[in-house]
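Supplementary Methods, section 5.1.

A reviewer requested that the exact input to the structure prediction be made available. We therefore reproduce it here, unchanged from the version used in the analyses.
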Amino acid sequence: MKIAILIYNGITMLDAIGPYEVLTQLPNAEVFFVAKNKEEIKSDTGFVHLNAKYDFDDVVEADILLIPGSSIAFVKVMKDKKTLDWIRKVNKTTQFTTSVCSGSLILAATGLLKGLKATSHWKPIDLLKNFGAIPVRERFVHEGKIITAAGVSAGIDMALYLVNEIAGEQRAKAIQLLIEYDPNPIHDSGNYTTCKPDIIEKAERQLSRNAKKDLSLFEAALNLKKIK
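The structure derived from this sequence is encoded cell-by-cell as follows.
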C-alpha cells in the first residue's frame, strides 16, 4: 500500500509523524515523504528537519494521500499552484485522501472539499467556508474517500480509524497497543468547544507569536479571508 505524505517548510511535524507511526503498520505499507523540491524541510519550530527524497515528479499516484498542516505556512502552500495541481493529480488515484489540522485548508484550496463536511484546527476552521466546504468541529470527518482530522494529535485518531477501515478492527487495536496510544491528559482543555475562554485566549496569543516569527506569512494570514 503506497502512502504519500506531503511535506513543506513550516510543517507541524506531529501532523505528519503521528499518522506515519500508525500507517506504516498497514500490510505492505510503503511511505513516501514528498515535497515540491528535493531538499531539507524545516518544521514550524525550526528545530526538526526532514530530508525530502521525493518530489512531485517522483510520486504521481498513491493509495493514501496525507496532507499535514502547519502553524502558518499553510497560507503560502494553499496558494501554490504546483502543489495544488499535484494534490489533484494524486487524488485521482487514491483510495483515501486525508488531511490533518490546517492541512484541510490546503486540501480545500484544490476545490476537493467543495460541498463536503470537513474539520481543521480550531483556530482557522471557519476559513473552510471560503472554499465551499462545511466546517464541523469533530475529531475527524469522513466524507466519501476524504477524511479530514482536527488539530495535530487528531491525526493519530484519524490514522487508527483509517487502519480500521482498511485492515479491520483487530489490526487497528493491535497498532493502538503497539504505539501505546491511551490518552490521559493532565488537564481537560484539549477540546475547543469545552475549553474555558481564558485558556482559548492564551492559546490564541501563542499562535500569534508563532505566526509572527515569519512576518511575511503573518501578513498573509491577516488577509486570509480574502482568499477565494
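The two ends are 35 Å apart (CA to CA). These observations are discussed further in the main text.
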